[in-house]
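Appendix B. Raw example, untouched.
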Amino acid sequence: QVQLVESGGGLVQAGGSLRLSCAASRTIFSANVMGWYRQAPGKERELVAHITPGGSTNYADSVKGRFTISRDNGKNTIYLQMNSLKPEDTAVYYCNFRSLLLTDYWGQGTQVTVSS
């Protein structure tokens, strides 16, 4: 089992910034990949960004150039720095830990609301 504790969501105006954090109960190096997903009302959950233990990253086209995923191996924590936020970024953001056996673990979700 892996517990994931998220923090950092909130309400921000368009053009503003937020940073999400996700602390894992297991070392990041035991993950195949960690990342952030989001789900807006009435929509399916979608990948926002992910990062491998080696540091390789991948982003959804809609957030490239605005969001940055990073990790602190010593704290078993990943971050999502979100800049130039848009109303369409409004969603519940979920942290994901995919184990080496490809089992997915999820955080409880944190609400991000961007007002226009």
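End of appendix B.
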